[in-house]
Amino acid sequence: xRRVAPHIALLPSAGMGHLAPFCRLAVALSDSGxxxxxITIQPTVSSAESRxxxxxxxxxxRLRPLDFRLADFDPSAFASTDPFxxxxxxxxxxxxxxxxxxxxxxxxVSALVVDISLAxxxxxxxxxxxxxxxxxxxxSAAMLSLCAHFPAYIANRTTAGVGDVDIPGLWTVPKxxxxxxxxxxxxxxxTQFVENGRILQKADxxxxxxxxxxxxxxxxxxxxxxxxPGLPPVVAMGPLKPVMGCEGGSALPWLDAQxxxxxxxxxxxxxxxMSVDQMKELGSGLERSGxxxxxxxxxxxxxxxxxxxxxxxxxxxxxxxxxxxxLVVKGWVEQEEILRHRAVGGFVSHCGWNSVTxxxxxxxxxxxxxxxxxxxxxAEVVARGGLGIWVKGWSWEGEExxxxxxxxxxxxxxxxxxxxxxxxxxxLGMEAVKAVAVDGSSGQGLAQFIGKL
Length: 453
Ligand code: BUP
Hints:
Blueprint: E1 7-11, H1 16-31, E2 35-40, H2 47-59, E3 64-67, H3 83-92, H4 98-103, E4 111-115, H5 119-128, E5 133-137, H6 141-156, E6 165-166, E7 172-173, H7 188-199, E8 205-208, H8 212-223, E9 234-236, H9 252-256, E10 263-267, H10 276-289, E11 292-297, H11 310-314, H12 316-322, E12 326-330, H13 335-340, E13 344-349, H14 353-361, E14 366-368, H15 375-384, E15 388-390, H16 405-417, H17 419-436, H18 441-452
Parallel strand pairs: 1-2, 1-4, 2-3, 4-5, 5-8, 8-9, 10-11, 10-13, 11-12, 13-14, 14-15
Antiparallel strand pairs: 6-7
Helix pairs in contact: 1-2, 5-7, 6-7, 10-16
């Protein structure tokens, strides 16, 4: 009998860091012959997300959009919470509405892939209607190890609060690298994180956007039952290939005019705001480095609130002084096109996991400046994996202290001049390309996942 293509529904969560890997997975599955439904939730928190979804669906009309209307949610009980975490909660509390949405699809859905941040609420609902439920973990395998071990850590700790966390089979994550919200057991994010960590064992599989050459140790520890016994298969599929080109090519003509590998690209991701003081110090560090630079500036957590002009943030004089060597832009750029560009030779990054995987895919060395959340855990992966350098003293969430302009300038020069680092990042880039080929470890991971359905 002719085999029918599986129909896979994908449920992403809030924030570009969560949305981007789902878009990539959707296209990879569809390219492999699967029928794909892409669950969307409107309005999105950031405008970057809504533009991204619109572009995806326009570029790939074979993906079926499924509009998920959330239940009413009153965020007032969580006054100072991050807007993205609040949206996670709103989606989580709408889990009971999913079966009705799925019931309306034709052909019937054969499996769900759900974002890790939604796991503990959606997994029981999905398996309750008899469907296989896979999770997509949107950060590093090292971070997945922390997530899987954290419930046991909390249950067995002898002192209140959080200290260094020794992950069985991997390494010790020092207290300073633990995401800040996890220090507080009553934080909304902590509750979600612990509940999601507890339910991992019940999933049919855990998909992850990483690859063996970068995270062999963590992937082996997870799959050999060292981190937690009884985990389902953890399937590395990365680096998932970026899928588009939406807009914002404004930096490209400038890049085209620069010599090969002469430009350092500077970005702290879509949701990490920087204080004005910190930004000025960074600006002056970039100037001191003497290197050419392309710097994407962001001063608000949610892009819809971004109002201040660059001149106001950095001063007209600064912009005038650096204009021969530096392009400073506000708003969205097409990061993947930039990292792929021959003029780019280094990346000062907050180490959001998508950024790390994009740099790895193109063999661009990273100077890690993690600022919050999982980013220090990811920065450790970058440093251990030979993809970059990490200066541990620079400021972190809630810290006023800044990396000094002098120090930043020196480290940026080091990033751009260290031949050994350039070679090891390039090697990793070649490994990444091999991994995602049809017969590579990640290509095989994807094929096996589809095969099971
Ligand atoms: Br900013 C920016 N252009 O201008 P991360 C980001 N991106 O293409 P984050 C652009 O958004 P979390 C821009 O290439 C990556 O795919 C970038 O994801 C793209 O960090 C994505 O790197 C950003 O994971 O999310 O946004 O801080 O904190 O959830 O990891």
